[in-house]
Amino acid sequence: MQFATIQPIAARPDLPVITDEEAAALARATVNLFRAWDLSDAEARTLLGDMAQRTWARWKVGDIGRIDRDLRARMAILMGIHKALRYLFTDPARGHAWIRKPNEAFGGKSALDIMMRGEITDLIDLRSYLDAERGGW
Predict the structure, then answer these.
(1) Residues 75, 27: contact at Cβ < 8 Å?
(2) Residue stretches of the chain with pLDDT short of 70
(3) Quick check: 64 and 70 in contact, CB under 8 A?
(4) Is 38 left (phi over 0), alpha (psi -120 to 50) or beta?
(5) Distances (CA, A) of 78 to 1, 6, 132
């Protein structure tokens, strides 16, 4: 049996990279967003990929350390969710409250319930849902 040689695929340099400075700004924005969403520390830490309690405590006082690629991606997705909610709701408070309200599209669960499952794919799915709602598909 003859197997074809698989050619390596080049990295995607065309995709933007989140710089350290941008990641720190994302972290500060995420802390502020979670305050607006009125999340508990446990909820916030879960949405950030089970962040350590001490790390989250440092973030809340502005002591942002090194941020790995996966955490950068989570925060970028969360900002996308926030942006979509700002487009969908002219009153920011309604958008902030929406994440806790039961939703038929989620089988009666809230968006926060979906996000609290903890997987990055749950955040991506919610972002995709909101983008579709915004686009009127």
Answers:
(1) yes
(2) 1-3, 8-15, 136-137
(3) no
(4) left
(5) 48, 36, 16
The token duo for 72 is 């950068």
The residue type of 85 is L
CA distance 118 to 50: 8
Token reading at 109? 């669960």
Alpha carbons 71 and 47: distance in angstroms, whole number: 10
pLDDT digits (tens, 9 = 90+) for 73-89: 999 999 999 999 999 99
* pTM exceeds 0.90, yes or no: no
The domain limits of the chain are 20-135
Contacts of 39 (CB under 8 A, 6+ apart): 47, 112
Determine contact, residues 81/127, Cβ cutoff 8 Å: yes
Name the residue with tokens 């686009």: 135
